[in-house]
Design goal:
Blueprint lengths: L13 E6 L5 E3 L4 E2 L3 H19 L2 H31 L6 E5 L11 H7 L7 H14 L3 E5 L24 E3 L6 E3 H19 L40
Parallel strand pairs: 1-4, 4-5
Antiparallel strand pairs: 1-2, 2-3, 6-7
Helix pairs in contact: 1-2, 2-4
This protein binds zinc ion (ZN).
Zinc ion binds next to loops.
């Protein structure tokens, strides 16, 4: 049981972050973060693990234990580096929006994205999210989660949603309006937009979509900031009501 945090309209900028495989993270600020080689590094170990599992001998099991430890350490390392970079590229006082990938493996609807795009099948979102959240809090950045559905298939310009919109792993081309851009960047805009519209549906309006319209005590779906973290002293923008 958790008590939902009170919802506050974002005071600073709102930044959407898409977590993927081609690029570990792409932000709506057009930052492409993380290393492409991570995918191959992690995959190599993953494949080797599979091989050893199939072998099943005593020595194979011993190697497997070592390898599992190695993979976990490597992921942890990558998660630390990636979360650090995302926070470094996000202004203090902003709200960072990520997809909630907690139950990603049990979601049949997300199957396609899970298998082809997520960093790895067994990648732990919980660990990454924990790293991201504490690093963000140190800088006065709030991390919120949104439902990941359709974020990769929807056009961030006209809102047209179709699976065919996604031309390839890296390119998005809207069948309706012809908007063409990096697929992960398009998703990051949708992730940001999802959060903004969830605020709008609660009657919290945003000025210009990026600055605050004041405070609200209404509860919001998803995550709020951790108790005890004060953003009041960090945001120096004038607030309008
Ligand atoms: Zn479009």
């Amino acid at each position: 049981m958790s008590i939902p945090d009170p919802v506050v309209a974002p005071a600073g900028k709102v930044v959407g972050v898409d977590l993927g495989l081609n690029r570990p993270a792409v932000t709506s600020n057009k930052q492409f973060l993380g290393e492409r080689r991570w995918k191959e590094q992690e995959r190599r170990i993953f494949r080797l693990k599979r091989k050893l599992q199939a072998k099943g001998t005593k020595s194979a099991k011993r190697h497997l234990r070592k390898l599992s430890g190695k993979l976990l350490r490597q992921r942890k390392d990558h998660d630390h580096v990636l979360s650090k970079r995302i926070v470094a590229h996000t202004p203090a006082g902003s709200t960072m929006v990520v997809e909630n990938l907690t139950h990603i493996r049990s979601r049949a609807r997300m199957k396609k994205k899970t298998e082809s795009q997520r960093r790895l099948h067994s990648w732990s979102f919980a660990q990454f999210h924990a790293f991201l959240t504490y690093k963000a809090q140190e800088k006065g950045i709030r991390v919120v989660k949104v439902d990941p559905r359709h974020t990769s298939q929807t056009c961030s310009r006209c809102g047209h949603q179709a699976r065919k919109n996604r031309r390839s792993q890296s390119l998005f081309l809207c069948r309706e309006c012809g908007y063409c851009l990096n697929a992960d960047l398009n998703a990051s805009h949708n992730i940001r937009e999802k959060y903004l519209s969830s605020l709008a549906s609660l009657g919290i309006s945003l000025v210009g979509g990026s600055s605050s319209s004041g405070l609200s005590s209404q509860p919001l779906v998803g995550e709020g900031q951790a108790p005890g973290l004060s953003r009041g002293g960090l945001d120096t923008r004038p607030h309008t009501l």
